[in-house]
Amino acid sequence: MTPLRGFRGGLAPNPPVVYPATGDRIRAAVKEDRVNTNPIGVFDSGLGGLSVVRHLRQILPDESLVYFGDAARVPYGTKSRPTVIQFALEAAGFLLDFEPKLIVAACNTASALALPELKREMPVPVIGVVEPGARAAVQLAGGKTIAVIGTEATIASSSYLKAIRALAPQQPVVTKACPLFVPLVEEGRTCDDPLVRLTVAEYLDPLRSQDLGVIVLGCTHYPLLRAAIAAHLGPNVQIVDSGQATSLTVRDHLTEYGSLSAAAAPGTMRCYVSDNPARFREVGSRFLNEPIEQVELVEPERYVNVSRPALRGP
Question: What is the pLDDT, as a whole number, of residue 57?
């Protein structure tokens, strides 16, 4: 295993929130042989984290990815904090079998409730989705109100509110839990589904009276409902996809800490799920906008209460 240089956990400072040209930085890093061919590990409670994977594959096409979707225990958003911490540590622990150079907690609930524990327990850097999404929202708000929608657990944690206020103490913020969005997405319902439109209206109608500038999709499942959300709120409200902002943070971290891949071919992707790989393959292809060729079922004994040796740094 190529040793990972840099720090244990944490975010690169002030990443951009658009797709800037980074070829010169990346080529310079590769020229100096600051590379790492180990994969990036990504986990989520189910399908939603594939919205992060989609951006990672666009921004870092040479990086190989290993994805674990804990579909047997979806959703995390209705679980207690101790349960979410346990599930997140087990999901991330499973990814350690693949010797990742970095792990992305591509689940807002896990990022909101378990990120400190993940950073403490994992022997590689862990990046969550809350801080990058909050930073992107602040940059786009322009003095108007930021709305954050997410699962019950994410909203109750006030994680986005705290992250936004840490960056802009006077920033107006409203939050709204939308617990039915995740099961709608997991069922494979699309934005033109009448039930989706009715649910979006039910949750978002109260927000329309606010002077909204930005709405943060505070759950990685929600980008699949983006068109319905945008249609309901109108063109003057900008939408922040925390998966895009997180992927840019991953890119900046790998560049800064010398962990970029120098593979000659595009990176590979391996997908593992704890339940129903056929549904994951079918619905997950919509998240990625490309077919998922192979998905492996992971039995509980491979990730629940499993003791794994720590990866060793330099």
Answer: 94
